[in-house]
């Protein structure tokens, strides 16, 4: 029978096998943020521009396709699961090696990514003290002021130093980054441990693995060209490479349609409205 969704496929298998399929699905979403769930060859699958990962349940195993062909190290690491054509079979009588399946998903996403030789990569580096004057300049720009702190908080150089240097020095639980397009600094981004971050933020969070993120693009000419989505994806991918991280969340102002769309393109799901100290400021 033709399936229209992962859930429709999952509903046809026994509960213990369904739990395995769900954990594979969750791992792929963790490791390849922005991958879209779909059906291919009547199997649950994931696509970016192209489908890069299929998985399915059989009587004695979970199958993962297509074969990895580029990453020799991973081909060796998955040797005991590889069949003659390179497809992977994970026996139901053994524990699922989820971390390994996550690596397979990352490698397949890369293997099936369209080559964009002329487009430099978006990467993140830790922010340093030397970046503070540049950050100060960025924080004066109207498109940043509009959604980052508000008109009243257009900071002086000294305020910028006072607010951001403790983050650089890891004295706060906020980690600041500068995003680069090739070698050009294009954005400020930050991540933080949501639990216990204080001042009324995420007051009900009890999971120490949850991270919050925020960012802005520096140059107004870069807005709306897909760069913000690439920055968010790079940050999420970097955060999830730490096995302690369970979830990445963010809290754009409901009126910030561009930011919300950017997060959704990067794979975030809308959960609902949250009370934050600044949501009142944004809405007032
Ligand atoms: C939020 C931000 C990082 C997003 O980066 P970006 O490069 O502009 O975003 P992208 O181009 O990747 O995606 C924006 C999407 O929103 C859409 N969009 C733009 N303005 C919109 C609006 N007013 N309403 C709805 N959608 C809008 C764009 O069309 C695009 O979607 P599409 O690709 O489907 O067409 C960037 O806009 C920014 O720095 N804004 C100022 C600071 C800020 O708001 N920071 C976020 C605080 S939570």
What does the model show?
- The chain is an alpha+beta fold and 284 residues long.
- It is 33% helix and 21% strand.
- The model is unreliable at 279-284 (pLDDT under 50).
- It folds into two domains: 6-111, Aspartate Aminotransferase, domain 1, CATH 3.90.1150.200; 122-283, Aminopeptidase (3-Layer(aba) Sandwich).
- The strands form two sheets. It has a five-stranded antiparallel sheet.
- Strand 9, helix 8 (227-240) and strand 10 form a beta-alpha-beta unit.
- The structure holds coenzyme A (COA).
- Coenzyme A is lined by residues 143-144, 147-148, 214-217, 223-229, 252, 256-259, 261-262, 265.
Spell out the blueprint of helices and strands.
Blueprint: H1 6-10, H2 15-31, E1 36-40, E2 43-47, E3 51-57, E4 61-65, H3 72-77, E5 88-91, H4 98-111, E6 122-126, H5 132-138, H6 142-145, H7 157-168, E7 174-181, E8 184-193, E9 210-217, H8 227-240, E10 247-249, H9 257-265, H10 279-283
Parallel strand pairs: 9-10
Antiparallel strand pairs: 1-2, 2-3, 3-4, 4-5, 6-7, 7-8, 8-9
Helix pairs in contact: 2-4, 5-7
The structure holds coenzyme A.
Structural key phrases:
5-stranded antiparallel beta sheet, elongated, 10 helices, binds coenzyme A, Aminopeptidase, 284 residues, 5-stranded mixed beta sheet, disordered C terminus, 2 domains, Aspartate Aminotransferase, domain 1, single chain, alpha+beta
